[in-house]
Amino acid sequence: MSFLSTALDRVKPSPTIAVTQKARELAAMGRDVIGLGAGEPDFDTPDHIKEAAKAAIDAGKTKYTAPDGIPELKQAICAKFARDNNLGYTPAQVIVCTGGKQVLYNALMATLNPGDKVVIPAPYWVSYPDMVRLAGGEPVIVECGIENGFKMTPAQLEAAITPNTKWFIFNSPSNPTGAGYTADELKGLTDVLLRHPHVWVMTDDMYEHLAFDGFQFATPAQVEPQLYDRTLTVNGVSKAYAMTGWRIGYAAGPEKVIAAMRKIQSQSTTNPCSISQYAALEALNGPQDFIEPNNVMFKRRRDLVVEGLNAADGITCPVPNGAFYVYPNIAGCIGKTSAGGTKIETDEDFATALLEEENVAVVFGAAFGLSPNFRISYATSDEALTEACTRIQRFCANLK
Predict the structure, then answer these.
(1) pLDDT of residue 6
(2) CB within 10 Å: which end of the chain, N or C, has fewer?
(3) Residues in domain Aminotransferase class I/classII large (predicted)?
(4) Beta carbons of 73 and 223 less than 8 angstroms apart
(5) What kind and span of H or E run contains 376?
C-alpha cells in the first residue's frame, strides 16, 4: 500500500513554476539567464496600496478575519463589479481567497463529482486541468489553434458539451496567448450555453485591465444576463495592481456556490492574510490612474517582442489583445538540430535547448495543451526582452 494519496497520480507539478525555479537555480550558479517564464509584473506594488497595508499593521489589523474576507473588501468587490462590469452582487455572493488559484480550486472541489466533465479551451492556464483532476472531475480539452486566433468557436463548444458537462472554464484575455474575446465573439459562446442549462461558467478575468489597441473587455454574465445564475466570475488584484505576492483573489456568483466554497476554505486555509485584504481594499477603492501608464509600457514591450520573434527563422508570433504573454508557433523549427546537437522534435526540446545553449528560459507549449509553441512573459525590462529576442534569433538561425 502506497503511503501517498493516489490523487497525486492525477496531477503534475506546475511547469511554469518549474521553469522559473530552474532559471533561478542557473542564475545562482553564475549563468546569465533571462527568465521569461514567470507570469507577474515587474512593477512594484503602487505606494498607496503599500501604505494602506502599513496602516493596517499599525492599527492592529493582524487577527483572524471571517473565512471568506472582511466585510469592507467584499463590499468593495461588489462595487468593482457594478462599476466595471455592470454586474450586481451582494456581499453574500462574494468570496475572498488566497489568490485566484484558490478561488478556482475551491469552486471545483465544492462542485465536482466523479464523472463530471469540465470543458477547457486550449491553450489553457496550466493549472486548470490538474485542478479538475484533483477534484475528481475530467477535463475535456478543446484545441483552439492559431488559425482562429487561439479562440474557441461556438461550434467547438457545442461539440464538447455532453450530459455530464458541469463547467465551462473561460479566460480572456488569455494566459498563455493574450487572446481576448470581443463581446460579439463571447455572445456566440453564451448562445450555446443558453441551450445547455446544466452547464455552468467559470470565467477567469484576472487580466481584465491589461488590454491594448482599443480592445474592450467583456465577461460572460455581462454579455448574457440569463447566465448570471450559473456563472462564477473570478478576478483578483495580482496582475493589474502588481500584487502577485499578496495573494488575494476573489469571485462572485450564486450564494449556494459561494457558501460551498466558503465551507471548503473554512477547513483549509481559513481567511486570506488580513494585511493583504486591507491592501486589496485600497487597490479596488483607491486611485486607478497607474493602470493606463503601465499598459502603455506593456504594449511597447509586446510590440518589441512580437517584432523580435517574427524576425526569427521558423517562428510565427501573433499579436495578442491583452495580458502580458505571447505564444509563438515554432512549426518551422521542428525536425531541425540545434548548434549544441539537440534534435528539436517537440516544443519542450526547443525550450530545453534554448535554455541550455542561449540562457533564455521560456515555457514549452505542451504545458498549455497546444503545440508546437512556447510562452514568453514580457513583464520584464525592455533591455532583457531585446537581449532575449537576439538570443532566440541566433538560436533559430543556427538550427540545421
Answers:
(1) 87
(2) N
(3) 32-392
(4) no
(5) strand 374-377
